[in-house]
């Protein structure tokens, strides 16, 4: 039976024991573009669990096909998470194991999973990380900007609260990391320039994919570049922190 298999596999792939009679929730990282970044352990866990809760079941199906396994899938995204969570928690407390995956990268990082993790913990279910690719950290480590201390800001609000959030970052000394959609990239670079001044920046595009590109400049230079070259694909903006007093 799948559950037994999961428990057996669990011994090799996980050092955190399951609570008596309960399953485990695995938070599994998947590639952010390059399937070569799928880890061996991620495949083993996804193969072994009873359920995979996936933000996009179609993408999850493609991953399964590519890595040659089939596990029961349930869709789990921001719009159905409150309805879906009780069923997943019931499976977990009944002794089944669940892996949560997002569209790409680490679930919970600007992606659903946080809610499920909190509910699992509230029900005394062990939560196990299965690390994988992440766009923010991948951009940071190639940015050339200080990596010793940094702040992940995710997506800036498109409207309400945007200026307030930016103002609060004005004196932040740590390196700042933002996610941004292509159609808002230029506007965000403009706002960062207006509030933070002309700091150094690295704009990382399509990391690990065919059109990977990292533009290292200052905010003014990056703006000039993306005003002429229409932004396409997925972006991370890494900006220098405020100068230390
Ligand atoms: N969970 C993901 C992670 O761990 O990185 C992030 C998901 S978030 C919904 C999607 C955003 O992440 C994109 O809009 C973009 O800002 C960033 N992103 C994801 N993949 C990327 C890539 N290959 N290159 C650059 N940025 C990427």
Explain how this protein is built.
The protein has 9 helices and 10 strands. It folds into 2 domains: 4-130, Cobalt-precorrin-4 Transmethylase, domain 1, CATH 3.40.1010; 135-239, Tetrapyrrole methylase, C-terminal domain (Methyltransferase, Cobalt-precorrin-4 Transmethylase, Domain 2, 2-Layer Sandwich). The protein is of the alpha/beta class and 245 residues long. The longest helix is centred in the middle third of the chain and has 13 residues, at 81-93. The strands form 2 sheets. A 5-stranded parallel β-sheet has the order 3-2-4-1-5, with helices on both faces. A 5-stranded mixed β-sheet has the order 6-7-10-8-9. Strand 6, helix 7 and strand 7 (175-180) form a beta-alpha-beta unit. The model is unreliable at 1-7 (pLDDT under 50). Helix content is 38%, strand content 21%. Residues 32-33, 102, 104-106, 109-111, 134-136, 179-181, 204, 206-209, 234-236 line the site of S-adenosylmethionine. The site of S-adenosylmethionine (SAM) has 23 residues, from helix 6, strand 7 and strand 10.
